[in-house]
Amino acid sequence: MSQYYKPHRNILWNYRGPNWRLSRSKIDLFKECPRCFYIDNKLGTARPPGFPFALNSAVDTLFKKEFDFYRVKGSRHPLMEQYGVEAVPFKNSNMNEWRENFKGIKYYHDKTGFTVSGAVDDIWINPKGELIVVDYKSTSKEEEINSLDKDWHNGYKRQMEVYQWLLRKNGFTVSDTGYFVYANGKTDREAFDKKLEFEVTLISYKGDDSWIEPTLSEIKKTLDSDKVPEASSECDYCTYRKAVKDVLENK
């Protein structure tokens, strides 16, 4: 058996099991493909995972250390000054837990009985006392990154909106505007020379979390049904499963 992929999880972590919770990534999976979501959370068979991007994780870790330095000082990071953002990193005793995978910011949603959670990269606070959700991203592209206009960026936007919703449900005043701190690895240098240089940009995004409550109701209805939902027409996993089934049946 693969050491990386164990498809059938312990039933304690399936829907209605004592350890199950609705994470931010699971909400996004439901938006991507209800069938994959159902097979994962109700039936307990997950999609094969992607390999972790160790370089991206390293960039995230260094960003957190860097912004924590200014958090302790209670002052603006140079990137905030560069882009004219009137804010400082938010100080709160729960920050480490809010950032930790499998913990994060939590909220019990009475209407569905779901515990919803999500691990945020960072939170800033502006002079009005509004919290600002911040997400770190890293990549390496030739073009300058200054917008989120690709279809696959929709997942990034939903990610931020879930964090904004979670903070509001925990009683905080949250700005509609969040920021993506985007690091783009440059490949136009003369040589590697044992270092990779990044261009860092700050991209603002005005979130709208109004879709979350109806989506939670849809998720509840889906999970409580015995009927496996239709696959998304854009789901490569479901397309592959169907193609394999067709090939084997016609063998």
From TrEMBL:
InterPro entries: PDDEXK-like_dom_sf (IPR011604), PDDEXK_AddAB-type (IPR038726), Restrct_endonuc-II-like (IPR011335). Coiled coil: none annotated. It comes from Candidatus Liptonbacteria bacterium CG11_big_fil_rev_8_21_14_0_20_35_14. Residues 83-242 form the PD-(D/E)XK endonuclease-like domain. It comes from the Bacteria. This is PD-(D/E)XK endonuclease-like domain-containing protein.
